[in-house]
Amino acid sequence: MASRGGPRAAGTDGSDFQHRERVASHYQMSVALKSEIKKLIYTHVGIWLLLLAQMCVGHLKLLPHDQVAMPYQWEYPYLLSILPSLLGLLSFPRNNISYLVLSMISTGLFSVAPLIYGAMEMFPMAQQLYRHGKAYRFIFGFSAVSIMYLVVVVAAQVHGWQLYYSKKLLDSWFTSTQEKKKK
């Protein structure tokens, strides 16, 4: 090619390099998926902080129990769900496959499993609320079971999408690894 300001190679206007400027699709996908997973992790951290605040207020008795109810049993193991998110974030800088796999496995164990248990634990109280209109636990005047079911639904979606995007990211990284081995 030609140097800056110097003579150009015969038969070229200097624009024939553009075909070499494309980024491989698996690298583009990796960047896009990392961005989506980070958004989901930040959403998860927000949910986690809300549950942590509810637990602290309930246990430290900062507000009366008629305003903020004591936490349900499923909320305690759900506090461990921050660990898979941290592992996921740690896997991004160097495309660490083992951290991402550990993050996916522990998301199922520490995030999804407590949510399933929580839905089952709160079901009798939800039934009682909707059949008889009786609620015994409240969070700022609203039925605690209704609010916590909303949290469970949102958190389940966040973790489901997080697992889906993590699987796609893992596939993208394997594609990249296989192409490096071919060279």
Outline the structure in words.
It comes from Podilymbus podiceps (Pied-billed grebe). InterPro entries: Jagunal (IPR009787). Pfam families: Jagunal (PF07086). It is found in: Endoplasmic reticulum membrane. Its main location: endoplasmic reticulum. The chain has one domain. It is mostly helical. The chain is elongated and about 85 Å long. Strand 1 and strand 2 form a beta hairpin. It has a two-stranded antiparallel sheet with strand order 1-2. The chain contains five helices and two strands; from the N terminus they run ααααββα. It has helices at 25-60, 75-78, 82-91, 97-132, 144-182, and strands at 138-139, 142-143. Helix 1 (25-60) runs antiparallel to helix 3 and helix 3 packs antiparallel against helix 4 (97-132). The mean pLDDT is 87. The two termini are 26 Å apart.
Summarize the structure.
Its main location: endoplasmic reticulum. This protein has helices at 25-60, 75-78, 82-91, 97-132, 144-182; strands at residues 138-139, 142-143.
SSE string, helices as H and strands as E:
HHHHEEH
Helix content: 55-70%
Count of spatially separate domains:
1
Low-confidence stretches: none
Distance between the termini: 26 Å
Mean pLDDT: 87
Tell how many strands the DSSP assignment holds: 2
User: Rough shape?
Assistant: elongated
Helix count? 5
The assigned structural class equals mainly alpha
**Cα-atom Rg, whole angstroms?**
25 Å
How would you characterize the largest beta sheet?
2 strands, antiparallel
Strand order of the largest sheet: 1-2
Membrane topology: Multi-pass membrane protein
Main location: endoplasmic reticulum
Subcellular location: Endoplasmic reticulum membrane
Family: Belongs to the jagunal family.
